[in-house]
Amino acid sequence: MRINCSINGKAVPNSQAKISVFDNSLFYADGLFETLMAIGGKPVFLDDHLRRLEKGADLIGIKLPVSIETISRWIVGANKKNEAPVKKIRVTVTAGDSAFWAGKKSAPRIIIIVTEYELPTKPFRLTVSPFRVDGRSPFRNVKTLSFIIEMTSRKQAYSEKYDDAILLNRRGNVAETTSANLFWVKKGVLYTTPLTAGCLEGMTRKHIIDLAKKNDIPARIKNIKLDELLKSDEIFVTSSLKLILPVISIDTDKRHEYRSGPLTKRLKSLLIRYIQQN
Q1: Would you tell me how many other CB atoms lie within 10 Å of the CB of residue 159?
Q2: In the chain, fewer beta carbons within 10 Å around the N or the C end?
Q3: What digits encode the pLDDT tens for the residues 122-163?
């Protein structure tokens, strides 16, 4: 597998890709990340991801050590060094060394990892996480390193042979899955959950909503209980590393089965065309 890393803009061999044990991200998950896909030499939705990264840094009080334009150049440069046709890119911003533990604070670190990647095509089988998220928290809309609910739910789902788990919020409404935004279709209308439900402000989610509007596909943002979601005609998940994947089953007290429907297929085609043309 082709992998390359950089820290603060400097390429480092994988064996030397290390950070200080005093970094505050290790103590308190004080940091951010973005995950995006690159096709050839082009990172997909790069500007969108960087805007969200900047928003997250403002929210959690991290002063980025360089400009967003510099980070963009670093990402593009790291991507070009990896010759794989499709890649996944992870950008991590750590808070830097903790003054409390190290005696002196350091500047935040920016870590970029580019890895050879194969876009998944297998439909998703979902379960429901027993853990609940706080839909009122603004931290749900950005990607902080505090990801324990998602990872615990995902590991449990994997151990039970599911592809992911649905997260509900404390009001019992559907938020998202641990790794993707959720969309559903009912009587020809496309729906997704609001940011106030506790879902990530996903980049693919954003472009799916825009594409629906531009192509006269009725689209609504709506809070939904799990029982109502289960009655959908089509369900699919979206993320930067999945694009669109249909959901073919959700297990609760019984299995609910679905097919990859016409609107799911149409939106996937529109999204791929949009990426190719932009």
Answers
A1: 8
A2: N
A3: 999 999 999 999 999 999 999 999 999 999 999 999 999 999
Q: Alpha-carbon distance 23 to 4, whole Å?
A: 22
Tell me the pTM: 0.95
85 by DSSP, 3-state: which? coil
Q: Smallest Cα–Cα separation from 243: which of 192, 180, 149?
A: 180
**Angle subtended at Cα 178 by Cα 200 and Cα 5, rounded to the nearest 5 degrees:** 80
With beta carbons less than 8 A apart as the criterion, state whether 112 and 74 touch: yes
Q: Are 49 and 142 in contact (CB under 8 A)?
A: no
Give me the residues paired with residue 221 across strands.
Answer: 192
Q: How many CB atoms lie within 10 A of CB 244?
A: 21
> pLDDT per residue over 154-207, tens digit each?
999 999 999 999 999 999 999 999 999 999 999 999 999 999 999 999 999 999
Residue for token pair 């790069």: 46
Taken in order of first residue, the domains within the chain and their CATH numbers are 3-116 (3.30.470.10), 124-277 (3.20.10.10)
Amino acid letter for position 258: Y
Distance CA 72, CA 86 (A): 18
CA–chain centroid gap for 75, Å, is 17
Please give the average per-residue pLDDT across 23-52, as a whole number: 96
